[in-house]
Amino acid sequence: MTILLAEHAIDPPVLLAPLAGITDLPFRKLVSSFGAGLVVSEMVASQEMVQAKPGVREKAELGMQFANTSVQLAGREAVWMAEAARVVAANGARVIDINMGCPAKKVTNGYSGSALLKDLDHALTLIEAVVEAVDVPVTLKTRLGWDDALLNAPTLAKRAEDAGIRMLTIHGRTRCQFYKGHADWDAIRAVKDAVDIPVVANGDITNSDTAQEALKASGADGVMIGRGAQGKPWILAKVAHDLHGTEAPDIPQGAALNDMVCSHYEDMLGFYGEELGLRVSRKHLGWYMDGAGTPPALRREVLTSKSSSNTLKLLPTALQESTAA
Fold first, then answer.
1. CB–CB of 144/151 below 8 Å?
2. What is the pTM of this model?
3. What whole-number distance in Å separates Cα of residue 73 and Cα of residue 189?
4. Active site residues
5. How far is CA 242 from each of CA 20, 80, 223, 249, 291, rounded to the nearest angstrom?
6. 87, 73 in Cβ contact below 8 A?
7. Along the 325 residues of the chain, how does pLDDT read in single tens digits?
8. Burial of residue 30, with CB atoms counted within 10 A of its CB: 0-12 exposed, 13-18 middle, 19 or more buried
9. Which CATH architecture has domain 3-244?
10. Contacts of 173 (CB under 8 A, 6+ apart)
């Protein structure tokens, strides 16, 4: 099955979710190397990017030229959203996604992210501004609603479709749930029934079984995987193989896993620089070692290492027990 956004094809319909501090360029490239229909950048604050505040513009510019990459923008003012969309489109972005789902207080307190679910009229001004500013497909990621008393995703979805949005991704929780409880995939069906454009299900999809369950419950056209990819960059490709018959990924184990992790680690160091890279890489190394069953003392030694060369020496032993799946 293929999702078509104008001339842009998402095939297979298994997408990597935008995760702040996680789906940076090194990780998106790694996930793409196994196989993914679309990988979405970390959320980029529109005004800060246009004004070129340190560290913000790089998130969007680096890697957006790759065909299967979508750049996600967030903001609360139409003028900045439109200008940011023009900037990323001019620099090669093939797809632009609008964030109306982030539940973080620092985002919603600024009336961005999922706070926009409380004011659909204002949300539509942002959507219309971005759609009118660029020729590339524009998509929208949001939640079921602000809380249980305001489950207005179907209404937003229909209005967004009428405004030119080409695809919707729905996380099966309200904003006030954050990430608690279980994603309500059944509730996504109301969004699917409200529109004719593709709908992607998101939330608690971590493997092929949960992906299949989410598709059945929601009627969605595809799935988006976020936290399930942490420490398992091959999981999207495995889901695509199991559900859509794509080529089976070569899941790394033993020496192959060590080679992959070391390469990812070196990519992070090159992307961020030695000092920042040492800090940013720790969460990824921790997830890899969780999967490998690394003994606690060795795990701690790897994560507290202050030298990249020392870390690279420790990793083969730390990962040798892996039975990745």
1. yes
2. 0.93
3. 25
4. 102
5. 28, 41, 13, 10, 21
6. no
7. 789 998 888 999 999 999 988 999 999 999 999 999 999 999 988 988 888 766 555 555 456 667 688 999 999 999 999 999 998 898 888 899 999 998 888 888 777 898 999 999 999 999 999 999 999 999 999 999 999 899 999 999 999 999 999 999 999 999 998 888 899 999 999 999 999 999 999 999 999 999 999 999 999 999 999 999 999 999 999 999 999 999 999 999 989 999 999 999 999 999 999 999 999 999 999 999 999 999 999 999 999 999 999 999 999 999 985 444 4
8. buried
9. Alpha-Beta Barrel (3.20)
10. 143, 144, 179, 180, 181, 183, 184, 203
Going by C-beta distance under 8 Å and a sequence separation of 6 or more, which residues neighbour residue 211?
14, 205, 223, 225, 239, 242, 243
Please give the Cα distance from 224 to 231 (Å, whole number): 16
DSSP 299-323: HHHHHT-S-HHHHHHHHHHHHTT--
Dihedral sign computed on CA atoms, order 320, 19, 65, 223: positive
CA–CA separation, 288 and 258 (whole Å): 10
Phi, psi of 233 (to 5 degrees): -65, -10
Structural domain spans, the chain: 3-244, 255-319
Residue type at 279 in one-letter notation: R
Residues 6+ apart with CB under 8 A from 149: none
Q: Which two tokens stand for residue 111?
A: 């009336």
Give the CA count within 13 Å in the CB-facing half-sphere of 28.
Answer: 29
